[in-house]
Amino acid sequence: MNMKRIKRLIITTFMILAIVAPAVMVLEGTSITTYAKSAKLSKKKATLKVGNSMTLKLRNCKHKIKWTSSNSKIVKVNARGKIFAKGAGTAKIKAKVGKSNYTCKVKVNFKDISLTTGQKSKLKVNGINASKVAWSSSNKSIVTVRNGKITAKAVGTSIITAKVGKNKYKAKINVRKKQPEWKSNFTLDEVVDTPDGLLIKATSLKAIKNVMAKVDYYNSNGKLVSYNCNDQVFCVASGETFYLTIPHPIGESYSSWKINFIIYNLPGEYKSQKSSLSLFNQWKKDNYEGVSVRNSSNNKITFDLITIYKYKGKIVGFYKDIMRDIEAKSVKSYDHLISTKGSVFDETEFVITDTALSD
């Protein structure tokens, strides 16, 4: 092979390399670009309620992902792409891989709200000037709204809408009847209508200084025939069972009654003494019955003693001794003539209620 042919071969080889090498680089570059374009976010839009969460995924991507939120007061996102709805509004969640960005627009509605009649609450759209929000209620007779301040007017359901431009953020408001105050103070275990009157058994949820039961009686036409029949107890400890008794009105014909409980937060110190008293040695002889009471405290105590009459396990009547007292560290017996308007009974139970330190 002569020198000219060798030179020609070398030149040809370099020319081939000059053509092939860039092609390889382009192919490799194309491969990377194609891979990046194949990555896809699991959602481009999402709607949540405050308090809810979900997880976004960037599919076909094995590289490190950086997650960010445009407004963390509306939506927060952790390093794994889990998003948390924090407040009403709209925010963008961004997944960044190298120089590539993938975005999900997240709309957050208000959480459902439960109110009682008369209660108020306030709603706010995050990231928006309050003057730019138009508020409305689907039923103004149930819930009214003004500048995000809502008022529960009546029992039912209403949808509150906050409109910002084309975006609408909704809140479902459930309104229930306001519960009487006593329901947060005690549970009503039993109300029994007997020939002797109403026997009310209850258990306190917290310490109560004074609770009164007032009863109104009505005739068959719904007319009030007797009112303000009442009984009360003082010094009830948390978790204590107590009793109230209401004798039926004499000489009045009635067909129904209604109880109203009133809680009084009286000034001064009031403390139940019931845990210091115990009953034992219940007896019955001829037309009399009684029970012994032990006072384990260092104080003189006054109390009410109720005799409950039962027939086949059901309460049929009662008798109440009020303002009994017992000296400190002593035992005393109490008796009375069997007294009930209930015609038949086969069981008697004594209970102590309304205890207090005696003067």
TrEMBL record:
Q: Where is the BIG2 domain?
A: 35-107, 108-174
Q: Which InterPro entries match?
A: Big_2, Invasin/intimin_cell_adhesion
Task: Give the domain of life.
Answer: Bacteria
Which Pfam families does UniProt cross-reference here? Big_2
Known SMART domains for this protein?
A: BID_2
| The name this protein goes by in its record | BIG2 domain-containing protein
Q: Which organism is it from?
A: Anaerosacchariphilus polymeriproducens
